[in-house]
Amino acid sequence: xxxxxxxxxxxxxxxxxxxxxxxxxxxxxxxxxxxxxxxxxxxxxxxxxxxxxxxxxxxxxxxxxxxxxxxxxxxxxxxxxxxxxxxxxxxxxxxxxxxxxxxxxxxxxxxxxxxxxxxxxxxxxxxxxxxxxxxxxxxxxxxxxxxxxxxxxxxxxxxxxxxxxxxxxxxxxxxxxxxxxxxxxxxxxxxxxxxxxxxxxxxxxxxxxxxxxxxxxxxxxxxxxxxxxxxxxxxxxxxxxxxxxxxxxxxxxxxxxxxxxxxxxxxxxxxxxxxxxxxxxxxxxxxxxxxxxxxxxxxxxxxxxxxxxxxxxxxxxxxxxxxxxxxxxxxxxxxxxxxxxxxxxxxxxxxxxxxxxxxxxxxxxxxxxxxxxxxxxxxxxxxxxxxxxxxxxxxxxxxxxxxxxxxxxxxxxxxxxxxxxxxxxxxx
Length: 428
Prior knowledge:
By secondary structure, the chain is α/β, with parallel strands linked by helices. It has two domains: 2-151 and 311-424, FAD/NAD(P)-binding domain; 162-301, Elongation Factor Tu (Ef-tu), domain 3. Helix content is 31%, strand content 17%. The chain has twelve helices and 16 strands. The protein has helices spanning 10-20, 62-72, 76-83, 96-108, 137-147, 192-204, 225-231, 281-288, 313-316, 341-359, 372-382, 408-424; strands at residues 2-6, 25-29, 53-56, 85-86, 91-94, 113-116, 127-129, 152-158, 161-163, 172-175, 185-190, 256-262, 269-272, 299-301, 304-310, 329-331. A six-stranded antiparallel beta sheet has the order 10-11-12-13-9-14. Helix 2 (62-72) packs parallel to helix 10 (341-359). The two termini are 14 Å apart. 49% of the residues are buried.
């Protein structure tokens, strides 16, 4: 039994793993390095483009609940992330290079796995399409031909990364918010004067003009820092520059705080948390160096924005992620309309499981909406009127409507655990 997976991102790699462990031979196609996207920088499988954070591991959060489900279902992406993790408090953040290497190493350990590095321009039967939000134009044409629908789109943004040695440690301090957990974040404090000067610079900073760009097309979770500045004087201070719970070694509190998160295991690079931007490169260097601790910052990578596409899933997909018009083709990952690394991996896991079931002559599974995976897959298949990219969130979960808000998270975890146990009992 054979399956074809198109796209070597998180969803494609997760789908491949779920197929391989169920005895299905997999040919994984990845177009890099022959063809690059506007955001990818390497040819590695499962490259993390925007951020190195896979968000919270707290099971009381939607992201933590999703990770709990993925752990129970033996997710490759989650296992690789844990091996490649770097300190980041209650979040799961990874060394990008180590993470990618681990994913590729595991897949290549299967004798029935084959990796072909070339662009795919046609979609065959028994294929999982996981080409992501930056699919090539040829693949977009193939998808349009298969689904008979046009694409939807939004704009996503990338945060800058700075060299650790270029941060002025006399102006920065390690701390976790409210002293919870290890002091994994490097904090760059700002006085009110610093903050006002910085905000004014953001407001006047020269931006890249995006073709067909409209502010409504920006995903809310990736709003550029200059847009937050425009929304109001204190908007950034209630967002990524929130100073509450952060005190330096001398007990000093700041008007605003820029947080830096480790990018690699050697702590040589730091990501500017929440600093997605659409400003021109020279403007980014000038303006971000107005942050006192970053006055001499050297940037490994500057921020950028790119257009993401996703299919009109409610019109074309079942909740199993199977194509309505062709039951031998599945879609997975961000191209389905989920947003986020672990959400993409979860859709890859579901598509991989269901393709394996198809090849074993079994009916596909539709996960309960009491699970986060099921809530997401049902959202992309059944939300035609207001369909927009969706992160894991507790509002998607079924069975909590009459539950007291104080115990809703606890009940969500209990419901999810029970439903995942039922699913595990049916898996091949």
